[in-house]
Each structure stands twice: as C-alpha cells, then as structure tokens.
Amino acid sequence: MALKLNKELEVGITLIDDQHRELINIINNLGSIQSFSKKETLDTIDSIKEYALEHFRVEEELHQKYGYPFADAHSLLHRTFLSELETIIEDFKLKEDTYKFLFALQQFITT
Questions:
Q1: Which terminus of the chain has fewer Cβ atoms in its 10 Å neighbourhood, N or C?
Q2: Residue 107: in which H helix or E strand, if any?
C-alpha cells in the first residue's frame, strides 16, 4: 500500500509540503529493504527518524515564527509520532520482521 500526500498533510507552504512528500517517498521506498541486511535496514530506519526530526524542527520553527494557533497541539503530534516510531523500531530490532515494521509505520502514518 503506497502512501500519498493527502489534503490532511498539505499545508499550503511549499517547503513543508515538499518535506511531507519526501518523508512519504522514503517510507514508500522501504519496500526494497526486504533484501537489506539488518544493519542496512536499521540505517534506513534511522534515516527516516533523522529526516522526521529535521522536518519537525523546521515546521515548529515556522509555527513559532508565524504564530500558528495550534502549534502546541501539532508539536504533540510530532512527539507522538517519534514515540511511536521508537516503539516500531524497537519491535523491529527484537523480531526483525520487515513486513510488520512497514505495516506498523504505514498504519501509524495513515491514522
């Protein structure tokens, strides 16, 4: 199931919308990790986390700069995503189940 940038993720700010698209593309391209070693898979997963952290930093700076009225609630969504991502990563490290990892990540993104 490929993810797509939907209207809920579009904010009308090109930088942010482009970052959302890139994060979704990274996640969609994870299907190729089936042939990766555990280290390559973990490196790919870490790159998702690093990209998300950078995106959240940029987005939260813009929220503050422009007085976004829902900045606190949106920051909570970011923290929830990162917490859930950590749980998914730890589960993968224990079970090394790539399909379960991909499914859990996609489920979290789309709910």
A1: C
A2: helix 98-110
